[in-house]
Design goal:
Blueprint: H1 2-13, E1 23-27, H2 34-44, E2 53-57, H3 59-69, H4 73-81, H5 85-90, E3 102-106, E4 109-114, E5 117-118, E6 121-123, E7 126-128, H6 133-144, E8 158-166, E9 172-177, H7 182-189, E10 199-201, E11 204-208, H8 217-223, E12 227-231, H9 243-260, H10 269-283, H11 291-297, H12 299-307, E13 316-319, H13 333-348, H14 351-364
Parallel strand pairs: 1-2, 1-12, 2-8, 12-13
Antiparallel strand pairs: 3-4, 4-5, 6-7, 8-9, 8-11, 10-11
Length: 367
């Protein structure tokens, strides 16, 4: 009997252990509201859940690339909330802060400053208020301390970020960046058109990934994630345009014109504009006329809703803080600290789900 028990124990001991589920972390875009992501991460860290894959868009790409490199949420909090971040993000020059207007020349670039803040500048044929050179240099320096420059340098946690290939009246297409210099990719991911100059990588004009995929759950799924933690900064309801409604609106618009001719009363202007937009959407495809097709169909909204259905039940923990009164430009120190606190509070509401995920991971690893 003892011999049988010994053989059984040896058999169990040499059974292949079940591998733990691969976990992805998704960090959405939202400008200054990214402070809420840091607060949420501070609470999530308590559960010691190993993160295998991280994907981020815009501000989520900055936080994500540093978090994947090994920076803790406390360190990110000091970076984002413990210093005047606005100056870094806006490339403000402290030596010019008291001068109403200064024009400087840097190589081929002519830069204008108003009280130290960059004004509209032309660079590589693109108009933009901000260069965000400081952000790229900051990210590159912080990653260098962890021995990371390219995407291939990540070892423990893989990282991807999302940008948009943008040509005003031609191509608008999502680009998942996973090769080359990380800091350049991050800068592209947050380059909001007109506000921040585009980033040129491999002859592509890249801008903010939020134009196409502001919550890249599909990216971590394609990387291999089986369970996902999502920190979503989207505020307000997101809906998908109904193509059938667009077609019906086209018919209504034609009938409206037939009934009223060209003598539109002021009270009917809003009706005409609404019907006209829907009608145009029925005629113009999503990938037609660049920004026009994008504005009429809003593929980013459709992708957002589709992504939220990629994982179901216990496979997704969707942390979605509500941030009333704050927007993408709320970079004041008090605002950042308050959003950080809100993010931590909302993440706490998922403590049972996080504990369950931690238990699953630990049991699978035989701890």
């Amino acid at each position: 009997m003892k011999r049988l028990l010994l053989l059984l124990c040896l058999f169990v001991a040499f059974l292949p252990s079940q591998s733990r589920p691969k976990v992805g972390l998704v960090l959405g875009g939202g400008g200054a509201k990214g402070a809420a992501q840091i607060g949420a991460l501070k609470y999530i860290e308590r559960f010691d859940i190993s993160i295998d894959y991280i994907a981020g868009t815009s501000i989520g790409s900055i936080i994500g690339c540093l978090y994947a490199a090994g920076y803790t949420a406390d360190e990110l909090e000091q970076l984002f909330c413990g210093q005047p971040l606005l100056n870094t993000l806006t490339d403000r020059r402290e030596d010019l802060r008291y001068k109403p207007f200064v024009r400087t020349t840097n190589g081929r670039d002519t830069l204008n400053y108003i009280f130290g803040f960059p004004a509209l500048n032309f660079r590589k044929g693109c108009i933009g208020l901000l260069n965000c050179d400081n952000v790229e240099h900051m990210v590159d320096s912080l990653l260098a301390l962890k021995g990371i420059h390219n995407f291939s340098d990540y070892r423990r946690t893989s990282f991807r970020c999302v940008a948009t290939e943008f040509n005003l009246f031609k191509t608008i297409r999502e680009e998942v960046l996973k090769e080359g210099c990380v800091s350049q990719a991050v800068r592209a991911s947050m380059a909001f058109p007109v506000i921040i100059k585009h980033q040129e990588i491999d002859n592509q004009h890249l801008v903010d990934g939020g134009m196409m995929n502001n919550l890249p759950i599909d990216v971590v799924k394609s990387m291999g994630a089986e369970k996902v933690i999502v920190i979503d900064l989207q505020q307000g309801e997101v809906t998908i345009d109904d193509e059938q409604q667009r077609i019906e609106s086209l018919s209504q618009l034609l009938k409206f014109i037939s009934d009223w001719g060209i003598n539109f009363a002021e009270s009917t202007i809003n009706t005409v504009l609404t019907l006209g937009a829907n009608a145009a959407g029925a005629l113009i495809k999503e990938d037609d006329f660049g920004i026009i097709g994008w504005a009429l169909h809003r593929p980013d909204n459709r992708k957002y809703i589709e992504n939220l259905h990629l994982f179901q039940g216990d496979d997704i923990i969707h942390v979605h803080p509500t941030l009333p009164g704050y927007d993408v430009a709320s970079f004041g120190q008090q605002a950042l600290l308050r959003m950080d606190s809100i993010g931590k509070y909302v993440a706490r509401q998922y403590r049972r789900e996080l504990a369950k995920l931690m238990q699953i991971a630990n049991n699978s690893m035989g701890r």
